[in-house]
Amino acid sequence: MAIKSILTNQEDFTGEFPVTSRTSALWRFNEKTPDENLQLMDSSGHGRHFTISGWSGTSANLIAGRFGRYFRQNIVNPTSEKTHLIAENDGSFFSNLGEKIVVGGWINPTTYSVGQTYIPIFNTRQGPGQPIFYVSLYQGRLRLMLYNSSGTLIYDQSETSTITLKNGGWYFIASIIEVNNKKVQNIICDRSDGATWVSPVRFFSGELNRECIANIIMGMHANTYYYAGGFDDWFLETDSQLTIDDLLLYFKSSLHANGGDAASDVDALAEPGTVTLKATDGEYPASGVLYTRAVSCALSGSGRVAVASEYTAGVTSVSLVETSTSDDLEEWSAWQAVGTSGELQSPNQQYIRFRVTLTSSDPLKTPKLLEIQLHDIPKAPYEKLGFARPVILDKNGAWEAVLENAFDIIVTGEVNGADTLEFKLPFHDPKRSTLENEKQVQIVNDIYRIRTLTDNKGEDGRVITQVYAEAVFYDLSFSAEKEPREFNADTADVPMQYALLGTGWTVGNVTVTTKRTWQCTEKNALSILRAVQNIYGGDLVFDSANRQVHLLTFSGTDSGALFSYRKNLKSIQRVVDTRELVTRLYAYGKDGLTFASINGGKEYVEDYTFSSEVRVSTLDCSSFTNPYQMLEYAKMRLAEYSKPRVSYVLSAMDLSALTGYEHEAWKLGDIVTVDDKELGLLVKTRVVRRQYNLQEPWKTVIELSTKLRELGDSSAQWDKAADALSSAELINRQEIKDMVPFNHLRNSRADDGFAYWVNSGFEVDTENGVSGTASFKAVGVPGMTKSLSQTVYPATRKSYTFSAQIASENLEKGENGQVGVEIVIEYEDGTTETRFIDLI
After folding, report:
1. I need a surface site. Which of 96, 279, 589, 753 has the fewest CB within 10 A?
2. Would you place residue 551 in the very low, low, confident or very high pLDDT band (cuts 50, 70, 90)?
3. What is the pLDDT of residues 579-610, one digit of tens each?
């Protein structure tokens, strides 16, 4: 799979002119006001800022518009206001002309500017030294003038285009000046109707002033002529590679982008590279719709759209992603929502644009759209594993070579475990040259990355190259280091989203609905995903072709495939393993947390269904901060550990590889039936591991387990550590008892009734307490919130601890019920932050 297009920069969402490596200066005019020096920022990074002459006491202003803000000047009376912009040349502006100069931007002229004879736009005639070019309007027509080093005019052309400049219209104008080829070409585009006009290629004689040190003046010449109207996104490129076609593409592709539009409900300017709902007086709207610029489509196969975002589950979301395509950037297909896994539904054409809906049910919160990727998924050369061959992909994800002479091709896969590929190729095969470390290899729809290449020469002189490759999802272990993160009563998709942020992968289907409160300390994306599967349960499924990760309650199906002796079963081995049988399981959470207080005083759970013998082990739950969820998790694990592990290892043939036996298809994670009358076996069991021989499907080895609901295969190498007690996070229980923290809460034991508390629905129980004789008590009522609150004023510290003794009797939470502590933190600047600690 190749990435066809990525939208992640500010201009992808706003339609502003993009910065390139050749940009000498770019003025976006997005400031609300100029700085203390009356300067407007150069967004190219070269520090060539504009200084405003004539700001105070004039109509000059920075107005909210389509591309954020724009600069408007001389609206009342140009000859008296005389506002203009000055970029002082430090001598470097034109020091590297290269082959081509390109200058242009957006203008919003008034009647004055299109009616007067001479209206300066982009001017180098004000010195010091001699000019190089002068862009202006001559009686409402675009005019370009060029000069040599002595200040002599060597080119002067006023264009008569099919586009007539009008009062209040927005026009994109640009000039391309080929320095050595002595060519000139101009472009004018009308935003109102999308019309474009390109001038003929024109020529000039003489040499441009390569020594120009003149300042750049916008909107003024000779302290006599002034421009009245607006400027936006003006740029200068030297040694440019831009062509007229590039400028036309920019204009047409940016027409619909609205991330900077003052009239839209989305904002792509407040956080560059991020799209949020647009806040008004600190509050966000319930929804907003982003239109992006158009980018390349033209897929070689099918397409998939991946969206990276930050959101609060159940509160904010990117709720809808739609696409529209075109071959000419003028006629567009109808908007189509992408499929549930991001499948592109729009017709495959040259260009694509996106319409994304952001929503929030909380006016104080907004989702954040970070990136949109369009993936090109070429049709796989093989549709099933049997008799398939490795396909080498180039750096763009396209097919480079099919290795027809590969042999001993083995794909090894495990549920929640390894996924590797091994094969051999004759060293002198002509396609051996395509094998390189880190190159990608495709097997049907799965993508692998070559990790080792080993060339072996035998006694017979034959040289064989042996290849070992790992599924591309292994690259997630090399992701940027992740910071520790607290998850509070979150479903699995929330930590998965955090893990995959910035990796190019996205969260797919998540059918596991468990909620967990825990602390994630893993450092990379893959380890976080493994931790999520271990804590939440389910099957972690990596879709390498689509770069998606799914967490499914059960990843397989009841395939209906039958393995029986003399049919497709060559050998069978049944293993009943009690080496790791456990009947009593201790669990310790974060900072020595136990669930004894809600489990009859016991720090362990027991299950003697299979054996009455006490067999003890300890479960590392150091990520857990909620005793209720830790108890649930420990019971789930013990249900697995307290029974013998029964597995079957079969040497079997994949009949589905043969014509007429397609109904015998099965895959990793599926349920199959094993029938062997001699061993007295007739059992439905699950494929938990396979060692598939692509060249000789009858040599395939599969491992089956009767454990139909997979809760995490602890035999996988990366899960080993999950079942060993790590003492690094534990605190001795006596040490906890010896801790005497300062309590900021007053009357925390209810000794004085509701003194110091604001009560809504609670009562004081004078008979039952823990450290005293009283406690606060609430009887839940469906659909009603009961609360008890107190405001405290602690000293400034790096961290605080909240603790409470909770008793829960006959507690049943409704669909949206919550039991916990809500903390509202007010900072010195008056801002607030709300956190909820889920207790059950």
Report:
1. 96
2. very high
3. 889 999 999 888 888 999 899 999 999 999 99
**By the 8 A CB rule, do 307 and 371 touch?**
yes
Contact, 311 vs 260, CB < 8 A? no
Residue 209: how many other CB atoms lie within 10 Å: 24
DSSP letters, 236-267, are: EEES----HHHHHHHHHHHTT--TT-TTSSEE
Q: Tokens representing 409? A: 């091709």
DSSP for 533-579 reads HHHH-SEEEEETTTTEEEEES----EEEEEEEBTTTEEEEEEEEE-T
Q: What CA–CA distance (Å, rounded) separates 60 from 807?
A: 67
Q: Is the Cβ–Cβ distance between 325 and 351 less than 8 Å?
A: yes
Cβ distance 14 to 269 under 8 Å? Answer: yes
For 627, which DSSP code? H
The helix or strand, by DSSP H or E, that contains position 310, with its residue range, turns out to be strand 302-310
- Ramachandran assignment for 638, one of left (phi > 0), alpha (psi -120 to 50 degrees), beta (any other): alpha
- Please list the residues that pair with 402 across neighbouring strands: 391
Give the pairing type, strands 295-296 and 351-360: antiparallel
Q: Helix, strand or coil for residue 532?
A: helix
CA distance 223 to 127: 13
Note the helical H segments in 50-179: 78-81, 111-115
Distance CA 47, CA 68 (A): 21
pLDDT greater than 60 at residue 716: no
- pLDDT band at 661; cut points 50, 70, 90: low
Determine the distance from the C-alpha atom of residue 330 to the mean position of all C-alpha atoms in its chain, rounded to a whole number: 30
Q: Please give the Cα distance from 661 to 659 (Å, whole number).
A: 6
pTM of the complete model: 0.58
Strand (E) or helix (H) holding 440: strand 440-443
pLDDT digits (tens, 9 = 90+) for 110-140: 999 999 999 999 999 987 999 999 999 999 9
Residue pair 1/245 in contact by the 8 Å Cβ criterion: no
Between residues 86 and 746, the one the model is more confident about: 86
Task: Please check the confidence at residue 718 and state whether its pLDDT lies above 70.
Answer: no
